[in-house]
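In this supplementary section we document a worked example of the pipeline. Step one takes a protein sequence of length 84 as its only input; no multiple sequence alignment statistics are reported here. Step two produces a three-dimensional model, which step three serialises into structure tokens for compact storage. The input and output of this example are shown verbatim.
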Amino acid sequence: MAVSLYGTLARLALRRPRLVPDMIRSAWAFRARGWYRRPPFLPVPPAGYVRWRMETAYGDPGAVPPADELERYLRWGSEMRRRM
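The serialised model returned by step three reads:
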């Protein structure tokens, strides 16, 4: 599940490099506590949180959102953080 989601994000970053800063900001906003103490040492959300978000949004904890939805969310999240 997470590999597919991160794979979709990676393909989106390759297709739309201008989204990479938004991706980094989102990863930082949802990073797991103590991420720097556990491999893979990346500030990504906990897997349980991602499963819960997918289940609440799509009714399936293993769902992978389409790239266009991810792009809209990243742009929206970035805009909301700018307005705060």
